[in-house]
Amino acid sequence: MTADVLVPTSADEAVSLYGDGGGITVFAGGTILLPEIAVGREKPERALMLHRAGLDTVRVDGDTVVIGAMVPIAALADADGGVLASVARHVGDGEVRRTATVGGNIAAPAAADAQRGDLGAPLIALGARVRSTGAGGERIEPIEEFLAGDRAGRLVLDVQYDRFERRSSTTGLRRRHAKSFSIATVVACARPDGSDLRIGVSGVAPTAVRLRAVEQSRDAGDVLRDVDPIDDAVASAAYRRAVLPKLVREALDQLELP
Length: 258
What we know:
11 helices; 4-stranded antiparallel beta sheet
């Protein structure tokens, strides 16, 4: 069966064509979806192609940075400094980064062999919000809530975060093969006076997670109250449980909180 191909030429048209998401397969960069189609695990009926929908820009709106869902990860990796650029530079390899998109990275379903959604950790630490549409219409919500919910029926439009002076740190472990796979990535941000501490971790569970217990206690040992690491082809849950407190402690130390 041949899929119906929908190619919106604006964000509004993409929203209209997506509707409640029923029967729609969204094509962003395709780095996850195309291999699934090739082996027969995905069989799209209606394909929504977003490459012409005008969702591929990064703009600054006052004190808010708005990153379109179709912005390639390479564009973030090429940016000067910041925790988002730091993590983006290690996603997959150069070919993947040039093709994969921000929206696809945070909306992708969980995988059994390796954890996806590397950008979740820095976006959580930055206090990012996700603007999406689907059943019930458009909404904006904190990224940690978006990740914890049912993303299957949502079309990501953009990701937003506020610009202000921050302390920031990034720590992690990766396993290198043909591509770079995250064992664990920890990102922390706080205001210069140490307030508004936010910590995100990715690579250890099906989605990135906000470390609320650690934020409150500032005790790295509390990380396992926030996240339950899992086994995959990259690392064992036991190994992740052993290294996570050390990575979180390193991230907190790098912040040099007052």
